[in-house]
Design a protein that fits this description.
CATH superfamily: DnaJ domain
Number of strands: 0
Distance between the termini: 63 Å
Strand content: under 5%
Order of helices and strands: HHHHHH
Structural class: mainly alpha
Number of domains: 1
Length: about 110
């Protein structure tokens, strides 16, 4: 059985734009009025991997060869580091101190 990547003839590392271009080319080459079954397979493949969230879900539930830890790391990876301002930093420090006080009081 072919994977969605094989149907669209893209690599697993393809981005949204590459996948969309491959999908559009496949639709042009296989219009629904010529072969409805093949068109449906192409459309289903595209819907399965059309964006980052769909690809993670597809790999998690359909691709048995993917290592779960590697997939989880990819899913949680963000391109940009989190930026916090000084007020948020002070709030985080305050929360940390208040938790320590609460834990010490519970132990006593």
């Amino acid at each position: 059985m072919k994977t969605a990547y094989q149907i669209l003839e893209v690599t697993a590392g393809a981005d949204d734009t590459e996948i969309r271009q491959a999908y559009l080319q496949k639709v042009r080459d296989n219009p629904p009025d010529v072969d409805q079954e093949k068109f449906q397979a192409i459309h289903t493949a595209y819907e399965s991997i059309k964006d980052y969230k769909c690809r993670i879900s597809y790999e998690l539930f359909h691709d048995q060869s993917v290592a779960f830890d590697a997939l989880l790391e990819r899913a949680l990876f963000t391109d940009q580091p989190r930026q916090i301002d000084s007020e948020q930093f002070i709030d985080l420090l305050r929360m940390g101190c208040e938790e320590k006080i609460t834990i010490k009081a519970e132990k006593a």
